[in-house]
Write a structure and sequence with these properties.
Elements (H helix, E strand, L loop, with lengths): L1 H6 L2 H26 L9 H27 L12 H6 L5 H25 L4 E3 L4 E3 L7 H12 L3 H14 L7 E3 H19 L2 H14 L13 E3 L5 E2 L8 E2 H4 L3 H11 L3 H15 L10 E2 L6 E2 L10 H13 L7 H16 L1 E3 L6 E3 L1 E3 L2 E3 L1 E3 L5 H9 L4 H23 L9 E3 L7 E2 L9 H13 L3 H16 L1 E2 L2 E2 L2 E3 L4 E2 L5 H14 L11 E3 L5 E3 L19 H10 L2
Antiparallel strand pairs: 1-2, 3-4, 4-5, 6-7, 7-8, 9-10, 11-12, 13-14, 14-15, 16-17, 18-19, 20-21
Helix pairs in contact: 2-3, 3-20, 5-19, 6-7, 6-8, 6-19, 8-9, 9-11, 11-12, 13-14, 15-16, 15-17, 16-17, 17-18, 17-19
Keywords: Calcium, Coiled coil, Disulfide bond, Glycoprotein, Glycosidase, Golgi apparatus, Hydrolase, Magnesium, Manganese, Membrane, Metal-binding, Signal-anchor, Transmembrane, Transmembrane helix
Cofactor: Ca(2+); Mn(2+); Mg(2+)
GO cellular component, one term: endoplasmic reticulum
């Protein structure tokens, strides 16, 4: 027996060939079965999803068989792709949603093709002048920011071109003073998310490269990072307009990315840096959980400044919740949830309602005085509250979900209250006047769409899909031009700007696509989104034990196959 195994692989090879034939026949049979169910109604959806799961399992088994034969020195070409008609039927939950997804995908193709034609390799596209601009030091921000959007939408050809650019042209050795925050959420976040989706190590290697260049920003006496750093030389500082202080959101919105990187590289240094920030802030965390937007990086003390859930404060509170979710809500990350719940008591103290329509809004606070002003950026809050609501008991859960729905209605009316049905940057609320736009530009922001996505996922209420569709139609009517998408300098007059923000493709269009996709696409019990809409896999964390590298050896086959074959 030993001699047979050492001299010839013919017996196991014959067995594997027979098995391969049977599996392939089964694969073809299931494919044709799914294909034949294109016209099924919603009553048959469970059966379609079951067949989809069987198809995915067969594809994974085929992949294992091909790997085995490859190890034996054989090369057998088999197609594991599903035909286009089958793609349409797999997971087709609703004809209207399917059609709307296709419209959003068309918008993504238009935006991406315009970027490829006029600004390839540069950070962002200026559509009206048909040229690119390096707003982030020449890191190809639109490419890196949009990798996972292309992947999730199944735009394979575009994704492969973007992947080749990352592998061969993306260079971080730039004598450029980068924003630690923006580079983390867009570039590091985009690379890590795409690695989690694709298992392609080129993205992880690039992620580690940029993270290593950002890491010296945390070398301060308090551990609170500087907010700017030279990518080539590692010199870090804060901008002059902050008076030497670090900004709350810029300093407290790197936890998800750096924790994820430590887990995937088995190197704890990244996680330690960002968790030291939370330890420092927790040491003197106020009873209402609200922090001013300026923090001294030398002492860790907060400086007198505004308290806000809008610009410069927003994502700090978001990441307290999401770091808890990222760790799978275990005891090891319980302190994140506790800090977040404390901060929500502070948020509730800032809620006011207008007359005559009773729109709920989140005030800003300066000292003891409240300002009746709310940024569109703060429209992430309804989604955050909805996401957290089902981890409360029944009574509290209903209260937080009700508040989320009230705030979402206000944010939706930020759009509906202007002539173009596009939201301004921020709003004031005056007695008897409900809301009035203050800063009147619109730069294609995603926050309201993000909250509608979460509310639809949590409640199943199709109203949120309708609101999202109305906003998308306003973008199509007013922001789409022949060479891409543009924002507006004034939502009252319709004067256009000359910028297609990378987050329009990375966040706004991604959340719109997911708003019309089944919940099985990036399920919220398996993935957590960073503040730039980049999904990371949830990894359970335990006390005194970190799962460093746990994902580095896992290929997310089922999800990858679902995304590639489930939606055309």
């Amino acid at each position: 027996m030993g001699k047979t195994r050492s001299s010839s692989p013919s017996l196991p090879l014959r067995w594997w060939r027979r098995t391969l034939v049977l599996v392939f026949i089964g694969f073809v049979a299931v494919t044709f079965t799914v294909w034949g169910r294109i016209t099924l109604t919603r009553d048959h959806m469970v059966e379609v999803l079951r067949l989809n799961e069987e198809l995915i399992n067969l594809q994974n088994l085929l992949e294992d068989l091909k790997n085995y034969l490859r190890d034996l020195g054989l090369s057998i070409q088999l197609s594991d792709r599903v035909s286009e008609p089958a793609k349409e039927s797999i997971g087709q939950d609703d004809p209207t949603n399917f059609w709307r997804r296709e419209q959003v995908k068309d918008a993504m193709i238009h935006a991406w093709s315009s970027y490829e034609k006029y600004a390839w390799g540069q950070d962002e596209l200026q559509p009206q002048t048909k040229n690119g601009i390096d707003t982030f030091g020449g890191l190809g921000a639109t490419i890196v920011d949009c990798l996972d959007t292309l992947f999730i939408m199944g735009l394979d050809e575009q994704f492969q071109r973007a992947r080749e650019w990352v592998a061969n042209s993306l260079d971080f050795n730039k004598n450029y003073e980068a924003s630690v925050f923006e580079t983390t959420i867009r570039v590091l976040g985009g690379l890590l998310s795409t690695y989690d989706l694709s298992s392609d190590k080129v993205f992880l290697e690039k992620a580690q490269d940029i993270a290593d260049r950002l890491l010296p920003a945390w070398n301060t006496p308090s551990g609170i990072p500087y907010n700017r750093i030279n990518l080539a030389y590692g010199n870090a500082n804060n901008p002059g307009w902050t008076g030497g202080n670090s900004v709350l959101a810029d300093s407290g919105t790197e936890q998800l990315e750096f924790i994820a990187l430590s887990q995937r590289t088995r190197d704890p240094k990244y996680q330690k840096k960002v968790e030291n920030v939370i330890k420092e802030l927790r040491r003197t965390f106020p009873l209402d959980g609200l922090l001013p937007v300026y923090i001294n990086p030398h002492t860790g003390a907060t400086s007198s400044s505004i308290y806000t859930f809008g610009a410069m404060g927003d994502s700090f509170y978001e990441y307290l919740l999401k770091a808890w979710i990222q760790g799978n809500k275990t005891e090891a990350v319980k302190h994140y949830r506790e800090m977040w719940e404390t901060s929500m008591e502070g948020l509730k103290s800032l809620i006011r309602r207008t007359t005559p329509s009773s729109f709920a809004y989140i005030c800003e606070k300066n000292g003891r005085f409240l300002s009746d002003k709310m940024d569109e950026l703060a429209c992430f809050a309804p989604g955050m509250l909805a996401l957290a609501s089902y981890d409360y008991g029944p009574g509290e859960a209903e209260k937080y979900l009700s508040l989320a729905e009230e705030l979402a209605w206000t944010c939706y009316n930020f759009y509906q209250s202007t002539p173009m049905k596009l939201a301004g940057e921020n709003y004031f609320f005056s007695a008897g006047q409900d809301m009035s736009v203050d800063t009147s530009w619109n730069i294609l922001r995603p926050e309201t769409i993000e909250s509608l996505f979460y509310l639809w996922r949590i409640t199943g209420n199709k109203t949120y899909q309708e609101w999202g569709w109305n906003i998308f139609q306003a973008f199509e009517k007013n922001s789409r031009i022949e060479t891409g998408y543009v924002g507006h300098k004034n939502v009252n007059t319709g004067i256009k700007d000359n910028m297609m923000q990378s987050f329009f493709l990375a966040e706004t269009l991604k959340y719109l696509y997911l708003l019309f996709s089944p919940p099985s696409v990036i399920p919220l019990d398996e993935w957590v989104f960073n503040t730039e809409a980049h999904p990371f896999r949830i990894v359970t964390r335990h006390d005194h034990e970190e799962n460093f590298g746990a994902l580095g050896q896992q290929k997310p086959q089922v999800l990858t196959k679902t995304l590639q074959t489930g939606y055309s």
